[in-house]
Amino acid sequence: MGKWIALIFLTILAMIFFRLKRPVDEKIEPPSNLTMFFHPVQGEGDLFIGGLLLIFFFSQLFLELFQALKELF
After folding, report:
1. pLDDT at res. 65
2. Residues 7-28: tens digit of each pLDDT
3. pLDDT of 60 strictly over 90
4. What sign has the CA pseudo-torsion 9, 10, 11, 13?
5. According to the 3-state scheme, what is the secondary structure of 5-72?
6. Which of 8, 32, 60, 61 is least buried, going by the fewest C-beta atoms within 10 A?
7. C-alpha 15: how far from its chain's center?
8. Domain for residue 65, yes or no?
């Protein structure tokens, strides 16, 4: 269970550091919607990928918690 908590915390930190490290975009014309959604540098792809990882890690954490409660009762 501790490994999932650590992975959640590290993923959130990685998302923050990657977001701060991104260069300021000086382009006037925005990229396409597909690029905005999936590309980690030109768009919001880092948040999409990080969000998927967080959903997976949280689901694994809750699975372990519910299994521990099931064994307890």
Report:
1. 92
2. 988 988 888 888 777 666 655 5
3. yes
4. positive
5. HHHHHHHHHHHHHHHHHCCCCCCCCCCCHHHHHHCCCCCCHHHHHHHHHHHHHHHHHHHHHHHHHHHH
6. 32
7. 6
8. yes
What is the span of the domain harbouring residue 37? 2-19+33-72
| Tokens, residue 47 | 């948040």
Q: Tokens 């959640």 appear where?
A: 8
Sign of CA dihedral 12, 3, 65, 53: positive
Degrees, nearest 5: CA angle 58-21-56: 10
Q: Check pLDDT > 90 for residue 31.
A: no
Q: How many separate domains does the chain show?
A: 1
